[in-house]
């Protein structure tokens, strides 16, 4: 009886174990829902950008005078209305500027550095360059110099105010010719020299070296201006009456009396005009024009040796 | 000569390619997750000193036990971009009730009527709705932040670790 009861329990236990094996552990753990259930919560994502820097290096050469202060303006993509950065600083030998990544045009030379010396005697200089995304840009050296000094005007004949073409005109410092030109058919000339001569003490304008007249010489003072105009009259003035003779050599004695030994009033240079009124076998008596008080012309009478002068022919005023 | 020329051309192309790209680093929590960039497996995280071109890209990140991430990004022209992904874990939750004849719905799409079930739930809040005879009898939000066991009693949810 006890044995039968034990066998019955054994059978029941065996059946339960079999059921457990067949159904797996789900009987104890429960079934698993087939899908993962998401709640579409936004994941945490952090994005950090690292931007590079652009270093632009521009060496500057100062020719002659160095301006005290320079304003540098950097533009990109050809937009010259809105600078990326403006820097006012003492004139550097090398200009450095640091820009954030991405501001420059990396496809064409549409980026600009404007160099504006804070001195009206200097003209602004522009440097165009192609950008990079980030890193260093070394630009070729740029020269900074004062604005050109300009002198222009017309050359004419004093006697009849006719324009003179083909006249040599030059600017000289001491006796060194810096720049020279020749007048056009209208008698016009224009000369420009570098701004470094702005404060030169011995700068002068010389005209008519290729003419039979005494050359015109005028000291130039650009300290107050960059541009000057000089109209140059060559030869004797209207006030001098014909016949007019010109001295044919340097140091011609212009005497008070015709006789040798009389007082020499002036030593005339080559090409100076003498308006002759009386003639003797060896001498001419006439008048010369001299400038007094730098502007006013006065006539002075005297004698010159006939061999020292030649008759002026206005149809042939250039040296042969 | 031709070989040298090819080598030079190759180097030039490589240089141009590198120059136009942005340095990329990708980190994830957890680590050692496959990173798929624009459909190409670029390796396991962390990824350092890789390259990416400026523009639109798609990252796909998946790991067993975490909710997958799909992330579209417009990469700006920059020197480098660093991405950190924090993956959302999935916890196994046991859900049990003594009530009879109830149907449960989670997040408006997942339904079951078993009185005892195991669920794989993404960490965070889930919206539970309870039906009886096709009528809503209860609504509530359950918060999952670890493996848990929920015991549901009508209009009263009791959770236990």
Measured distance between first and last alpha carbons of chain B = 74 Å
**CATH architecture field of the largest domain in chain A:** Sandwich
Coarse structural class of chain B: mainly beta
Order of helices and strands of chain A: HHEEEEEEEEEEEEEEEEEEEEEEEEE
**CATH C-level label of the largest domain in chain A:** Mainly Beta
* Mean of residue pLDDT values of chain A: 87
Query: Could you tell me the strand content of chain A as a percent range?
Result: over 45%
Q: Please state the CA-atom Rg of chain B, rounded to the nearest Å.
A: 25 Å
Q: Please write the CATH class name of the largest domain in chain B.
A: Mainly Beta
Continuous helix count of chain B = 1
| Count of beta strands of chain A | 25
What is the share of helical residues of chain B? 10-25%
DSSP helical segment count of chain A: 2
Shape of chain A: rod-shaped
Q: Which series of helices and strands of chain B comes N to C?
A: HEEEEEEEEEEEEEEE
For this entry, what is the oligomeric state of its chains?
heterodimer
């Amino acid at each position: 009886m006890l044995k039968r009861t034990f066998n019955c329990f054994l059978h029941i236990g065996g059946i339960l174990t079999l059921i457990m094996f067949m159904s797996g552990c789900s009987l104890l753990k429960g079934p698993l829902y087939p899908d993962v259930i998401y709640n579409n919560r936004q994941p945490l994502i952090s994005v950090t950008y690292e931007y590079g820097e652009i270093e632009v290096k521009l060496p500057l050469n100062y020719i002659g005078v160095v301006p005290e202060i320079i304003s540098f303006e950097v533009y990109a993509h050809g937009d010259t209305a809105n600078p990326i950065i403006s820097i006012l600083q003492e004139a550097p030998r090398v200009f450095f500027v640091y820009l954030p990544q991405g501001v420059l045009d990396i496809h064409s030379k549409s980026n600009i550095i404007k160099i504006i010396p804070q001195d009206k005697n200097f003209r602004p200089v522009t440097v165009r360059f192609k950008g990079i995304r980030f890193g260093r840009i070394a630009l070729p050296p740029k020269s900074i110099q004062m604005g050109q000094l300009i002198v222009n005007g017309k050359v004419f004949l004093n006697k009849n105010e006719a324009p003179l073409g083909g006249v040599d005109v030059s600017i000289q410092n001491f006796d060194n010719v810096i720049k020279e030109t020749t007048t056009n058919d209208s008698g016009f000339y224009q000369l420009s020299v570098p701004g470094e001569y702005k404060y030169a003490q011995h700068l002068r304008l010389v005209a008519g070296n290729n003419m039979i007249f005494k050359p015109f010489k005028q000291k130039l003072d650009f300290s107050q201006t960059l541009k000057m105009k000089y109209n140059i009259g060559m030869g004797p003035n209207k006030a001098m009456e014909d016949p007019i003779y010109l001295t044919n050599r340097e140091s011609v004695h212009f005497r008070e009396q015709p006789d040798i030994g009389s007082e020499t009033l002036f030593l005339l240079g080559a090409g100076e005009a003498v308006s002759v009124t009386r003639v003797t076998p060896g001498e001419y008596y006439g008048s010369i024009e001299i400038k007094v008080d730098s502007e006013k012309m006065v006539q002075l009478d005297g004698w010159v040796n006939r061999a020292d002068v030649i008759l002026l022919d206005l149809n042939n005023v250039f040296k042969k | 000569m031709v070989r040298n020329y090819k080598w030079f051309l190759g180097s030039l192309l490589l240089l141009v390619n590198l120059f136009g790209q942005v340095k990329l680093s990708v980190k994830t929590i957890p680590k050692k997750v496959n990173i798929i960039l624009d459909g190409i497996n670029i390796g396991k995280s962390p990824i350092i000193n890789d390259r990416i071109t400026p523009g639109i890209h798609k990252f796909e990140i998946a790991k067993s036990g975490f909710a997958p991430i799909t992330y579209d990004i417009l990469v700006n022209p920059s020197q480098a971009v660093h991405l950190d992904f924090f993956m959302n874990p999935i916890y196994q939750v046991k859900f049990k009730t003594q009530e009879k004849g109830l149907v449960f719905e989670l997040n408006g799409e997942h339904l079951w009527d078993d009185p005892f079930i195991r669920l794989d739930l993404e960490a965070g809040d889930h919206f539970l709705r309870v039906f009886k005879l096709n009528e809503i009898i209860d609504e509530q939000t359950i918060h999952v932040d670890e493996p848990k066991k929920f015991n549901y009693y009508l209009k009263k949810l009791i959770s236990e670790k």
